[in-house]
Amino acid sequence: MKIALFSDTYEEGYGGVTVYVRELSKFLINQGHEVKVFVWDSKNLTKEDREICETFPAIEVVKEVRGKAGIAPASITLKVKKFSPDLIHNHSQYTMGMHAIAISKILRIPLINHYHMYLEKIILYLPFLLQKTKKVTLYSIETFTKLFFNSGNMVITPTQVMKDYLKKIGVNKPIKVVPFGIDLNKFKALEVKKDETFTFLHVGRLNKEKNINLLIERFYEFAKGKNVKLKIIGDGPEKKNIKEFIKEKKLENKVEILGWKKREELPLEYSSAHCFIMLSDSETFGIVVLEAMACGLPIIGANEAAIPELVEDGINGFLVNIKNKDSILDKMNQLYENPNLQIEFSKNSRIIAKKFEKNLVFKSLEDIYFDLVKDKKR
Prior knowledge:
The longest helix is centred in the C-terminal third of the chain and has 20 residues, at 358-377. This protein folds into two domains: 2-181 and 357-377, 3-Layer(aba) Sandwich (Rossmann fold), CATH 3.40.50; 198-356, 3-Layer(aba) Sandwich (Rossmann fold). Strands 3-2-1-6-7-8-9 form a seven-stranded parallel beta sheet, sandwiched between helices. Strands 12-11-10-13-14-15 form a six-stranded parallel beta sheet, sandwiched between helices. Helices cover 42% and strands 18% of the residues. Helix 8 crosses helix 12 (325-337). The chain has helices at residues 16-30, 47-52, 73-83, 95-106, 128-132, 134-149, 160-168, 212-223, 239-248, 266-272, 287-294, 325-337, 339-353, 358-377; strands at 2-7, 34-40, 53-56, 59-62, 67-69, 87-90, 111-114, 154-157, 175-177, 198-203, 228-233, 255-259, 275-278, 299-302, 317-320.
């Protein structure tokens, strides 16, 4: 098959959606398919990236999250027509996604729209007036989301909770749940000596919706008198504010911001920690949670959005109400004080992660492609 992937970004280190698109494109190529990624240009794309990417100029419209937008209907349409794909799999919910919808209709190409993110969370980056009229803004976002995802032949969501949300707001196209796939040969527990200092680890972009200041606040309360530290891997618009908050709490010796790491470096970081912790209430899948599980880490995660579909409370970690301070501190303390519990959760994390093996998951997506193309030819 010839498969066109549409995405806002393809540069490594940008975020979960980019990780998904990069991994999917590699899998499909290895399966013998022809793949082109239609994406806004970036100076950070490598020579290898550009071999499979068709890039188009864009401007940065939401600087805080490096959000790009562009208008290039003629040039994108011509490039897609020249490639002549059997289907389009769109991973953008912004302007590149709108191009995918229009081009699929013009060229009569089957379209899959992938629901990767809650657009409701972008309200944190909108002008003050739109934040002040929150109800109207959220209604507008929901209306846009419904129209957007009713525009193609099918919708893919990474979790059941996201499927339920789309159905609730009126999306009536067929919706398939296909989680993220992980390479268990790369993400696995490594034989490394853990530091005597009990280490909590957080990985992810440093954005407002990740609730990292809340995490640091809870760690500050937990860490008093204990031999513990918190490592934060990632980069983003909130980095400066987070550093200032760490300084304000006088936690410079206990909290480290390690910046962005290449994915091949992450298994060592996961394996060196004792517990992975994430208090974000906006995860649409939680790729880093799954990576940490595959590397054998117990998880403390928010009982919100997609995290409960990865973390089984009391089995491989704890699900917490992020508004309940005492509960979070209690769960952190339980893992800190109980090595046997750490071992049990670690073993179970690895077992659960096996269900998300990359080839298994992406093969189910490939089957969906075949079925969609077959239906078109009937």
